[in-house]
């Protein structure tokens, strides 16, 4: 999926489990939502069995990434003040 679109919305903090089963808080700005069929040419390689995704800017890493919607346990929009502060809690306790 092409990265020509830029995020215009608010910064969102989400609790996300990636393809390696690592769960942590992430700060993102969503570019768009999309559906992909497993096995298709543009399907994200790290999510072979997922269908619903969002392309976003990972604010902390400064990179565009595809997040599987199934990996999101919760999210909230940050205020401007909250978005300026660094993430302090990276991983779920005990993980």
Layout of secondary structure:
Blueprint (H helix, E strand, L loop, with lengths): L11 E6 L5 E13 L16 E7 L4 E6 L3 E6 L2 H5 L11
Antiparallel strand pairs: 1-2, 1-5, 2-3, 3-4
Summarize the structure.
The protein has 95 residues and is mainly beta. Helix content is 5%, strand content 40%. The protein is globular, with a radius of gyration of 13 Å.
Can you offer a commentary on this structure?
The chain is mainly beta and 95 residues long. The protein has one domain (12-84). 5% of the residues lie in helices and 40% in strands. It has a five-stranded antiparallel β-sheet with strand order 4-3-2-1-5, with no helix packed on it. The radius of gyration is 13 Å and the shape is globular.
Strand portion, in percent?
35-45%
- Mean model confidence by pLDDT: 84
Report the biggest beta sheet as strand number plus sense, adding barrel if it closes. Answer: 5 strands, antiparallel
Q: How many independent structural domains?
A: 1
Task: Describe the structure using short key phrases.
95 residues, 5% helix, 5-stranded antiparallel β-sheet, single chain, 1 helix, mainly beta
